[in-house]
Amino acid sequence: MTISAQAKTVAERIRAAQRAAALSGAGMSVESGLPTFRSGSRALWRNHDPMTLATPEAFGRDPALVWEWYRERLRAHGAAQPNPGHVALAELERRVPSFTLITQNVDGLHLRAGSHDVIELHGDVRTSRCVRCGERVPTPIDGKTPPRCACGGVLRPNVVWFGEALPAGAYERAYEAAAASEVFIVAGTSAIVFPAAGLVEVARQAGSFVVEVNPDETPATSRCDLSVRAPSGEFLPLVVEQL
Ligand code: OAD
Asked: Which of the following is catalytic: 77, 86, 110, 122?
């Protein structure tokens, strides 16, 4: 099947759906110029050891190092623009009666593209929280490292690190959206980090039409009804065009 025939198939399913959902990952933002974690030469976890940057223990050992890295990423997010894939998903939210976007991304690009019903499963870098009093504040992009809360406690990025729980209620809402969906789009994720990756199976078991959009095969590929080997920034706009 050609890419445009695949887009037509997905558009037909979406037109008929009352409820749809999507799970996105770092590949969604590649066409915005941001690196993924595991694919390509700029992959973050190829060039950095996550155990020194993305665990509570790493933060305890060297908060300044962790902060430098997150501030660098926050600057990169700020310089990036949502790409046509983000914009297409925002458009799907407008066209489908219920459309929930579950993202593992912390870059905020879905929100900037105009999506509203967004579950940020792994948190976000725009905000920080105090390790002492729990207060949340916009992440100070400059200034002392590590930044501090008004109470004097150290601030940390409001992201989920390895070994940590997801934000309260986020997985439950994501599970409900996946289980209720009639179409489930899996875009730009290697589908190896759980529990996020498990949502593909939740949708499948619920009888949803599961579509993967990824230039490469992943462990989720065999669980999908349709696998589209294309970048999300190219394929998702084609779906919107066919609606
Ligand atoms: P990964 O880096 O693991 O996977 C990115 C996926 O995007 C790969 O399967 C690529 O083939 C695909 N890809 C690359 N370019 C693409 C494009 N233009 N369009 C569509 N897909 C493309 O990123 P995630 O799956 O998001 O967790 O990683 C999951 C989690 O692992 C992240 O949220 C992060 C990381 O550790 C935390 O930080 C908690």
From this structure: 122
